[in-house]
Specification:
single chain, about 120 residues, two-stranded antiparallel sheet, 2 strands
Length: about 120
């Protein structure tokens, strides 16, 4: 599986939005290009593909403990909450970008007939 980061591609744009941009050899890229291509293809847009990727990333984190306490040190991970909040914002953005501000009516001025009475 490949991992590339080129912002001129849909995969690169999805990576940028979700923050999965560390793709040099030996890096910890979360998703492969093929996985991001799949999210884009079923989402139908970069925004919805990124939302789906963020939800999948959250699901990966959800299987791990969200908090840990060792002595006086306590750690609480907000990664799942943050990724799900990002996914919600992206879905909301996609919904508003698909809703037209107003409807247009197409007028047919060529086939106008006069009413003869």
């Amino acid at each position: 599986m490949t991992t590339t980061y080129d912002i001129t591609t849909t995969v690169g744009q999805v990576r940028l939005i979700i923050g999965d941009t560390d793709v040099h050899p030996g890096s910890d890229a979360v998703f492969s290009d093929e996985e991001l291509t799949y999210f884009y293809s079923i989402g139908g847009s970069v925004t919805l593909g990124a939302a789906m990727a963020a939800e999948a990333w959250a699901a990966k984190y959800a299987v791990n403990a969200s908090s840990e306490t060792i002595g006086d040190y306590a750690y609480i991970s907000k990664a799942v909450d943050n990724l799900l909040a990002l996914a919600k914002r992206l879905r909301d953005l996609a919904d508003t970008s698909l809703t037209p501000a107003m409807d247009w009516v197409e007028l047919d001025l060529i086939n106008v007939t006069e009413d003869t009475e």
